[in-house]
Amino acid sequence: MSDTAATLRDAPADVLEKYELYKRVADGGNGTIDFGLSREKVRAYKHIARDPSFYSHVRRDLVAVKLPFGFPVARTAAWAEVQCLEVIRAAVETPGFSMFKDSFAEIVDADRKHDDVGECYWFVMRAVESGVTLNTLNLAFIDTSHIYKAMPIGLISHIFLKLGAALEFLQEELGLRHGDVKDFNVMIRENAANPEFPDPVLVDFGTAFKADVDTGPSKYDRRNFCRMIYVLTERHTDNEKVCGCPGKHPEGWKEFVQAMKDDRKKTSEKSMREILKTFKGRTLGYKNSMQAHEIIHVRHVLQTEVDVAMDEEGIEDSEIKLSIFQEK
Ligand SMILES: Nc1ncnc2c1ncn2[C@@H]1O[C@H](COP(=O)(O)OP(=O)(O)O)[C@@H](O)[C@H]1O
Ligand SMILES: [Mg+2]
Questions:
Q1: Does residue 90 surpass a pLDDT of 50?
Q2: Over the stretch 193-251, which tens digit does the pLDDT of each residue have?
Q3: In what residue span(s) does the Protein kinase domain sit (predicted)?
Q4: Residue 119 domain-assigned?
Q5: Are residues 296 and 202 in the same domain?
Q6: What pLDDT sits at residue 2?
Q7: Edge to edge, what strands does the sheet with 31-38 contain?
């Protein structure tokens, strides 16, 4: 908990009254993110039996507290982000859209004292505990000692489908655009049932905006999404050249890559819905035909990356124990 002193110094008093902050996990462009727990819950944990499931129970309640930097423009962006996250939360809580619940940062609390001036000094989200972003996951594949240093096609397809559907929902159902779709703003949440298909979670709605028609800046999400997917596919192709093992690509893969390449440019007029409609069937096929050795490889890389991130930014059981029970 080496960063605690700095954290306490920076955080407003009212957030510290409600939350115990443990660790600064990120310094973003607009503010900082700290992991913590609600003090009310910490009090309640003292009465729960400390059996082997205790820490995993507590971990489910971990939160990520965003503290915008100390100038008005950062607080205004945070306020807009809160409005946006609340619209999303209300929508995904309705039964028809519950399948998108895990695709977006989930807001749980916010500073409402400065609503009249449209500023927000802090807000709280459910933590994505892995600390892994799509950017770090992609790099983790490059860093492995495995001969195949790129994300398998099945995993790229999964991310395309899951994130694409989330962006389509945002656009078509809520009339919102994220505004800054990039791999640093996509976090990877572990999926216990299918570890090879973790959930991509879209975070950072600080530059989101409302747009009813798909013109001008409204197209940025689609372009940025295609660019992001294209980067993953490019890495795949590059690796094949480097290791001299040109893969057997599934049918239609080349067209898919070409479309991502074209659609990342300004010239394309396609909407998210059209892109998904065109490639849904084949990417689902790629996802469902992931080979056993690829599944093992993905699970291994992801687990290693989560371990690294947890080592650097995560919270150990002993730290939770110390904060709840004041015991070393
Ligand atoms: N809910 C969350 N749980 C865990 N980490 C998060 C969460 N939200 C954001 N982060 C981490 O913090 C970083 C910065 O947050 P972000 O919202 O992108 O802020 P900024 O606007 O400053 O870029 C992200 O890239 C991600 O690594
Ligand atoms: Mg960001």
A1: yes
A2: 999 999 999 999 999 998 866 566 567 898 899 999 999 998 888 777 777 666 778 89
A3: 19-328
A4: yes
A5: yes
A6: 45
A7: 19-27, 31-38, 63-68, 123-126, 107-110
Task: Judge whether 109 lies within some domain.
Answer: yes
Do 91 and 224 lie in one domain? The reply is: no
Q: Which of 112, 127, 142 is the last residue of a domain?
A: 127
| Total H helices, total E strands in the chain | 12, 9
Total length of the chain: 328
**What's the CATH number where 19 sits?**
3.30.200.20
> Domains in the chain: how many in total?
2
Express each pLDDT in 115-151 by its tens digit: 999 999 999 999 999 989 999 999 998 877 776 778 9
Q: Do 168 and 283 fall within a single domain?
A: yes
> What single-letter DSSP state applies at residue 226?
H
Q: State in Å: Cα 184 to ligand 2 middle.
A: 6
State the DSSP code for 296: H
Q: Are residues 280 and 299 in the same domain?
A: yes
Q: Is 237 in the pocket of ligand 1 (CB under 6 A)?
A: no
* CATH label of the domain that carries residue 227: 1.10.510.10
The tokens for 267 are 């010239």
Task: Determine the distance separating the centroid of ligand 1 and the alpha carbon of 77, expressed in angstroms.
Answer: 14
292 compared with 149, residue with greater pLDDT: 292
What pLDDT was estimated at residue 51? 76
User: Domain limits at 91?
Assistant: 4-127
pLDDT of residue 23: 86
Kindly state if the Cβ of 31 falls inside 6 Å of ligand 1.
yes
In a domain, 70, yes or no: yes
The closest of 116, 125, 113 to 82, measured between CA atoms, is 125
Cα 252 from Cα 248, distance rounded (Å) = 12
Say how many Å lie between the CA of residue 35 and the centre of ligand 1.
11
Nearest ligand (C-alpha, residue 181): 2
Nearest alpha carbon, ligand 1 atom 12: 26
CA pair distance 199, 322, nearest whole angstrom: 31
Q: Are residues 105 and 178 in the same domain?
A: no
Indicate if the pLDDT at residue 7 is higher than 60: no
Give all strands (DSSP E) within the chain, no chain letters: 19-27, 31-38, 63-68, 107-110, 123-126, 176-177, 186-189, 199-202, 209-210
